[in-house]
Protein backbone atom coordinates (compact mmCIF):
# COMPACT_ATOMS: atom_id res chain seq x y z
CA UNK A 1 0.00 0.00 0.00
CA UNK A 2 1.42 3.38 -1.03
CA UNK A 3 2.19 6.10 1.50
CA UNK A 4 -0.38 8.40 -0.10
CA UNK A 5 -3.09 5.79 0.26
CA UNK A 6 -2.24 5.22 3.92
CA UNK A 7 -2.37 8.98 4.56
CA UNK A 8 -5.78 9.32 2.90
CA UNK A 9 -7.19 6.37 4.82
CA UNK A 10 -5.81 7.77 8.09
CA UNK A 11 -7.29 11.19 7.31
CA UNK A 12 -10.74 9.69 6.69
CA UNK A 13 -10.51 7.54 9.81
CA UNK A 14 -9.52 10.56 11.90
CA UNK A 15 -12.49 12.46 10.48
CA UNK A 16 -14.88 9.70 11.58
CA UNK A 17 -13.23 9.45 14.99
CA UNK A 18 -13.50 13.22 15.54
CA UNK A 19 -17.18 13.11 14.59
CA UNK A 20 -17.71 10.25 17.05
CA UNK A 21 -15.68 11.89 19.84
CA UNK A 22 -17.47 15.21 19.51
CA UNK A 23 -20.89 13.70 20.18
CA UNK A 24 -21.33 11.73 23.41
CA UNK A 25 -24.95 10.81 22.49
CA UNK A 26 -23.55 8.87 19.52
CA UNK A 27 -21.27 6.86 21.79
CA UNK A 28 -24.09 6.15 24.27
CA UNK A 29 -26.38 5.08 21.43
CA UNK A 30 -23.78 2.67 20.05
CA UNK A 31 -23.56 0.88 23.42
CA UNK A 32 -27.28 1.26 24.27
CA UNK A 33 -28.87 -1.05 21.70
CA UNK A 34 -26.64 -4.13 22.23
CA UNK A 35 -26.98 -3.72 26.00
CA UNK A 36 -30.77 -3.38 25.86
CA UNK A 37 -31.05 -6.40 23.59
CA UNK A 38 -28.86 -8.40 25.95
CA UNK A 39 -31.04 -7.53 28.96
CA UNK A 40 -34.31 -8.41 27.20
CA UNK A 41 -33.08 -11.70 25.77
CA UNK A 42 -31.25 -12.51 28.99
CA UNK A 43 -34.47 -12.44 30.99
CA UNK A 44 -36.25 -14.38 28.24
CA UNK A 45 -33.50 -16.99 28.60
CA UNK A 46 -34.02 -17.16 32.36
CA UNK A 47 -37.77 -17.57 31.88
CA UNK A 48 -37.48 -20.47 29.44
CA UNK A 49 -34.61 -21.94 31.42
CA UNK A 50 -37.11 -23.06 34.07
CA UNK A 51 -38.51 -25.66 31.64
CA UNK A 52 -35.39 -26.11 29.47
CA UNK A 53 -32.38 -25.84 31.82
CA UNK A 54 -29.86 -26.41 29.03
CA UNK A 55 -30.68 -22.94 27.59
CA UNK A 56 -29.63 -21.18 30.78
CA UNK A 57 -26.89 -23.63 31.72
CA UNK A 58 -24.95 -23.15 28.51
CA UNK A 59 -25.85 -19.49 28.09
CA UNK A 60 -26.46 -20.29 24.44
CA UNK A 61 -29.31 -17.85 23.89
CA UNK A 62 -27.46 -14.93 25.44
CA UNK A 63 -24.27 -15.83 23.57
CA UNK A 64 -25.89 -16.01 20.14
CA UNK A 65 -27.73 -12.72 20.73
CA UNK A 66 -24.44 -10.98 21.51
CA UNK A 67 -22.59 -12.52 18.59
CA UNK A 68 -25.44 -11.87 16.11
CA UNK A 69 -25.46 -8.22 17.12
CA UNK A 70 -21.85 -7.92 16.01
CA UNK A 71 -23.03 -8.48 12.42
CA UNK A 72 -25.78 -5.89 12.73
CA UNK A 73 -23.52 -3.35 14.47
CA UNK A 74 -20.70 -3.74 11.94
CA UNK A 75 -23.10 -3.30 9.04
CA UNK A 76 -24.99 -0.34 10.52
CA UNK A 77 -21.79 1.40 11.64
CA UNK A 78 -20.27 1.06 8.16
CA UNK A 79 -23.41 2.22 6.34
CA UNK A 80 -24.25 5.06 8.74
CA UNK A 81 -20.77 6.52 8.33
CA UNK A 82 -21.36 6.49 4.57
CA UNK A 83 -24.85 7.96 5.01
CA UNK A 84 -23.42 10.81 7.08
CA UNK A 85 -21.33 11.77 4.06
CA UNK A 86 -24.48 11.76 1.94
CA UNK A 87 -26.57 13.69 4.49
CA UNK A 88 -23.91 16.40 4.65
CA UNK A 89 -23.52 16.31 0.83
CA UNK A 90 -19.82 15.63 1.30
CA UNK A 91 -19.25 12.76 -1.16
CA UNK A 92 -18.44 15.14 -3.99
CA UNK A 93 -15.91 16.95 -1.79
CA UNK A 94 -14.24 13.69 -0.79
CA UNK A 95 -13.74 12.56 -4.36
CA UNK A 96 -12.43 15.94 -5.52
CA UNK A 97 -9.37 14.83 -3.55
CA UNK A 98 -7.32 11.96 -5.03
CA UNK A 99 -9.35 9.49 -2.97
CA UNK A 100 -9.90 6.02 -4.40
CA UNK A 101 -13.08 4.04 -3.68
CA UNK A 102 -11.15 1.21 -2.03
CA UNK A 103 -9.51 3.70 0.34
CA UNK A 104 -12.97 4.86 1.39
CA UNK A 105 -13.96 1.20 1.93
CA UNK A 106 -10.99 0.58 4.22
CA UNK A 107 -11.70 3.73 6.25
CA UNK A 108 -15.39 2.80 6.60
CA UNK A 109 -14.50 -0.78 7.60
CA UNK A 110 -12.02 0.53 10.21
CA UNK A 111 -14.49 2.92 11.86
CA UNK A 112 -17.12 0.17 11.66
CA UNK A 113 -14.87 -2.18 13.64
CA UNK A 114 -14.15 0.49 16.26
CA UNK A 115 -17.85 1.30 16.69
CA UNK A 116 -18.70 -2.40 16.89
CA UNK A 117 -16.22 -2.90 19.73
CA UNK A 118 -17.63 0.14 21.53
CA UNK A 119 -21.10 -1.39 21.31
CA UNK A 120 -20.34 -5.04 22.00
CA UNK A 121 -17.75 -5.00 24.79
CA UNK A 122 -19.95 -3.26 27.42
CA UNK A 123 -22.85 -5.62 26.62
CA UNK A 124 -20.59 -8.69 26.85
CA UNK A 125 -19.18 -7.52 30.19
CA UNK A 126 -22.65 -6.80 31.62
CA UNK A 127 -23.77 -10.34 30.76
CA UNK A 128 -21.34 -11.69 33.37
CA UNK A 129 -22.83 -10.10 36.54
CA UNK A 130 -26.41 -10.02 35.20
CA UNK A 131 -26.71 -13.60 33.95
CA UNK A 132 -23.47 -15.37 34.83
CA UNK A 133 -22.65 -15.85 31.13
CA UNK A 134 -19.32 -14.90 29.62
CA UNK A 135 -18.90 -15.19 25.86
CA UNK A 136 -15.16 -14.91 26.48
CA UNK A 137 -15.26 -18.47 27.84
CA UNK A 138 -15.43 -19.64 24.22
CA UNK A 139 -11.80 -18.62 23.87
CA UNK A 140 -10.17 -18.31 20.45
CA UNK A 141 -13.22 -19.67 18.55
CA UNK A 142 -15.06 -16.51 19.64
CA UNK A 143 -12.65 -14.47 17.49
CA UNK A 144 -13.47 -16.63 14.47
CA UNK A 145 -17.23 -16.32 15.09
CA UNK A 146 -16.99 -12.57 15.62
CA UNK A 147 -14.87 -11.71 12.58
CA UNK A 148 -16.89 -13.96 10.27
CA UNK A 149 -20.05 -12.08 11.25
CA UNK A 150 -18.32 -8.71 10.93
CA UNK A 151 -17.13 -9.81 7.48
CA UNK A 152 -20.72 -10.68 6.55
CA UNK A 153 -21.83 -7.26 7.80
CA UNK A 154 -19.26 -5.56 5.56
CA UNK A 155 -20.34 -7.62 2.56
CA UNK A 156 -23.95 -6.48 3.08
CA UNK A 157 -22.73 -2.89 3.51
CA UNK A 158 -20.96 -2.97 0.15
CA UNK A 159 -24.24 -3.80 -1.56
CA UNK A 160 -26.24 -1.21 0.41
CA UNK A 161 -23.74 1.62 -0.16
CA UNK A 162 -23.65 0.74 -3.85
CA UNK A 163 -27.43 1.09 -4.03
CA UNK A 164 -27.28 4.33 -2.03
CA UNK A 165 -24.66 5.93 -4.22
CA UNK A 166 -26.62 5.00 -7.34
CA UNK A 167 -30.19 5.66 -6.25
CA UNK A 168 -29.78 8.16 -3.41
CA UNK A 169 -31.28 8.52 0.04
CA UNK A 170 -34.62 7.06 -1.02
CA UNK A 171 -32.96 3.68 -0.47
CA UNK A 172 -31.57 4.38 3.02
CA UNK A 173 -34.17 2.13 4.70
CA UNK A 174 -32.24 -0.82 3.22
CA UNK A 175 -29.62 -0.16 5.91
CA UNK A 176 -31.93 -1.73 8.50
CA UNK A 177 -33.89 -4.11 6.28
CA UNK A 178 -31.29 -6.34 4.62
CA UNK A 179 -29.61 -7.84 7.75
CA UNK A 180 -33.00 -9.11 8.93
CA UNK A 181 -33.66 -10.58 5.50
CA UNK A 182 -31.03 -13.26 6.16
CA UNK A 183 -31.88 -13.69 9.87
CA UNK A 184 -34.46 -16.51 9.41
CA UNK A 185 -31.99 -18.66 7.46
CA UNK A 186 -29.04 -17.75 9.71
CA UNK A 187 -30.36 -20.21 12.33
CA UNK A 188 -29.50 -17.84 15.17
CA UNK A 189 -31.87 -19.17 17.83
CA UNK A 190 -32.56 -22.67 16.47
CA UNK A 191 -30.60 -25.43 14.70
CA UNK A 192 -30.52 -25.81 10.93
CA UNK A 193 -32.65 -28.96 11.15
CA UNK A 194 -35.59 -26.82 12.32
CA UNK A 195 -35.98 -25.30 8.85
CA UNK A 196 -38.00 -26.98 6.08
CA UNK A 197 -35.84 -28.97 3.67
CA UNK A 198 -36.05 -26.40 0.86
CA UNK A 199 -35.09 -23.58 3.22
CA UNK A 200 -32.15 -25.59 4.51
CA UNK A 201 -30.80 -25.55 0.95
CA UNK A 202 -30.98 -21.74 1.02
CA UNK A 203 -29.26 -21.64 4.43
CA UNK A 204 -26.31 -23.59 3.00
CA UNK A 205 -25.51 -20.48 0.92
CA UNK A 206 -25.66 -18.12 3.92
CA UNK A 207 -22.34 -17.84 5.83
CA UNK A 208 -24.03 -16.92 9.11
CA UNK A 209 -25.80 -20.30 9.28
CA UNK A 210 -22.40 -22.02 9.54
CA UNK A 211 -21.27 -19.59 12.24
CA UNK A 212 -24.25 -20.27 14.51
CA UNK A 213 -24.19 -24.01 13.88
CA UNK A 214 -20.53 -23.89 14.92
CA UNK A 215 -21.44 -21.98 18.07
CA UNK A 216 -24.07 -24.54 19.04
CA UNK A 217 -21.61 -27.41 18.60
CA UNK A 218 -19.10 -25.59 20.80
CA UNK A 219 -21.53 -24.53 23.56
CA UNK A 220 -23.67 -27.68 23.74
CA UNK A 221 -21.18 -30.41 22.86
CA UNK A 222 -17.82 -28.76 23.47
CA UNK A 223 -16.87 -29.56 19.87
CA UNK A 224 -14.92 -27.08 17.74
CA UNK A 225 -16.00 -27.47 14.09
CA UNK A 226 -13.32 -25.74 12.02
CA UNK A 227 -14.90 -26.97 8.79
CA UNK A 228 -18.03 -24.89 9.41
CA UNK A 229 -16.02 -21.72 9.97
CA UNK A 230 -13.95 -22.35 6.84
CA UNK A 231 -17.15 -22.66 4.79
CA UNK A 232 -18.45 -19.44 6.34
CA UNK A 233 -15.21 -17.64 5.54
CA UNK A 234 -15.14 -18.79 1.92
CA UNK A 235 -18.75 -17.71 1.41
CA UNK A 236 -17.95 -14.37 3.02
CA UNK A 237 -15.04 -13.87 0.62
CA UNK A 238 -17.36 -14.56 -2.31
CA UNK A 239 -20.11 -12.22 -1.09
CA UNK A 240 -17.65 -9.48 -0.11
CA UNK A 241 -16.08 -9.60 -3.59
CA UNK A 242 -19.54 -9.50 -5.14
CA UNK A 243 -20.57 -6.58 -2.91
CA UNK A 244 -17.36 -4.69 -3.71
CA UNK A 245 -18.00 -5.19 -7.44
CA UNK A 246 -21.53 -3.81 -7.03
CA UNK A 247 -20.22 -0.76 -5.16
CA UNK A 248 -17.50 -0.06 -7.74
CA UNK A 249 -19.97 -0.44 -10.61
CA UNK A 250 -22.43 1.92 -8.88
CA UNK A 251 -19.62 4.39 -8.12
CA UNK A 252 -18.47 4.50 -11.74
CA UNK A 253 -22.06 4.95 -12.87
CA UNK A 254 -22.67 7.75 -10.35
CA UNK A 255 -19.46 9.56 -11.33
CA UNK A 256 -20.25 9.24 -15.03
CA UNK A 257 -23.76 10.65 -14.54
CA UNK A 258 -22.72 13.40 -12.10
CA UNK A 259 -24.64 11.88 -9.18
CA UNK A 260 -21.87 12.30 -6.58
CA UNK A 261 -22.60 16.01 -6.24
CA UNK A 262 -26.33 15.28 -5.87
CA UNK A 263 -25.98 12.33 -3.47
CA UNK A 264 -27.58 14.16 -0.54
CA UNK A 265 -30.67 15.23 -2.46
Q: What does this 3D model show about the protein?
A:
The protein is mostly helical and 265 residues long. It has one domain (3-262). Helices cover 77% and strands 0% of the residues. The protein is built from 11 helices and no strands. The chain has helices spanning 3-21, 24-49, 53-58, 60-87, 91-96, 101-131, 140-167, 174-181, 197-203, 207-221, 226-256. The radius of gyration is 19 Å and the shape is globular.
What features would you highlight for this structure?
single chain, 265 residues, mainly alpha, 11 helices, 77% helix, globular
Would you list the SSEs in sequence order as H and E? HHHHHHHHHHH
Strand % is under 5%
Largest pleated sheet: none
Mean pLDDT: 84
For the termini, the CA-CA separation is 34 Å
* Domain count: 1
Low-confidence stretches: 54-58
Q: Rounded to an integer, what's the Rg over CA atoms?
A: 19 Å
User: How many helices does DSSP assign?
Assistant: 11
The helix content is over 70%
Structural class: mainly alpha
Count of individual beta strands: 0
> Shape, please?
globular
